[in-house]
Amino acid sequence: MQTKYSEHPAMFRNNPLGFLLAVLLIPVAIGIIILMVWYLKCKSIRLDFIGDDLILERGLLSKDRTELDVHRIRTVNVYQSFFNRIFGVGRISIYTAGDEPEIDVSGLPNPHDLRELIKAQQDR
Fold first, then answer.
1. DSSP label of 88
2. Domain limits at 103?
3. Rounded distance, CA 119 to CA 92, Å?
């Protein structure tokens, strides 16, 4: 099986002002705590596109894993604010049925690339 996309949410590019504020707070020691918690949150989420499956894993110690067959995906929604577009990140929501997304992840690098990969795989 070939991995076509594998990413964690980005820290700096997702929220550059929050990142700079946390760096400025490092001398007070609160910044280090904020950055460590933020880093662990980002590393605890991973979205992979392997073969015909889209896999979302959440968690560090305990894991929550959601797998979707690409051919069952109905809608892929990409949202990017102005700053998100500048830094190349965005929120991706993936729907198979119903009004609630099965996968919803913020801060993913290159979300349009993932959307294009899904569409190309569905056309096969």
1. T
2. 3-122
3. 14
Query: Between the CA of residue 44 and those of 10, 27, 96, 99, 105, what are the distances in Å?
Result: 12, 26, 24, 26, 12
Distance CA 31, CA 22 (A): 4
Determine the straight-line distance between the first and last CA of the chain, rounded to whole angstroms.
16
Tally of structural domains, the chain: 1
Token pair for 33: 């705590």
Q: Given strand 89-95, what is the order of strands in its sheet?
A: 75-79, 89-95, 103-109
pLDDT at 57: 97
Distance CA 24, CA 28 (A): 9
Give the domain CATH number at 43. Answer: 2.30.29
Q: Which value, in Å, is the radius of gyration of the alpha carbons in the chain?
A: 16
Q: What is the mean pLDDT of each run of 10 residues along the chain (124 residues)?
A: 89 90 91 94 95 94 94 94 93 92 94 93 84
